[in-house]
Design goal:
This protein has 98 residues and is mainly α. The chain contains 4 helices and no strands. The protein has one domain. It is flat, with a radius of gyration of 20 Å.
């Protein structure tokens, strides 16, 4: 959970710096509390699943998943590639997105 909290904290800090708005202490405290609650809530589900012997992965996969690349069929891969290559219509110049 360490690196995820660091990344989310950086995104929060960078967003506040780039927005130029004055810092609000109450909002910062609420952000930290929500990040910690969400992170520990996420991790507690793994502990709960382990306590109830829920497997995280299976030894045998269905044939259609094992045959395709990362579980995606060819059409889905084409759509994802088109979305990744498509130019963005929005730009950020440091003052915001427009």
């Amino acid at each position: 959970m360490g690196v995820v909290l660091i990344i989310l904290g950086f995104i929060d800090h960078a967003g506040k710096e780039l927005s130029g708005l004055p810092e609000r202490t109450a909002l910062s405290k609420l952000t930290v509390i929500l990040l910690l609650l969400g992170g520990y809530g996420f991790l507690s589900m793994f502990y709960w699943a382990g306590a109830h012997s829920v497997p995280r992965r299976y030894a045998i996969h269905r044939a259609e998943i094992a045959a395709s690349h990362f579980g995606f069929d060819p059409m889905c891969r084409r759509v994802l590639a088109a979305l990744a290559i498509a130019p963005s219509s929005r730009e950020c110049d440091g003052r915001g997105w427009h």
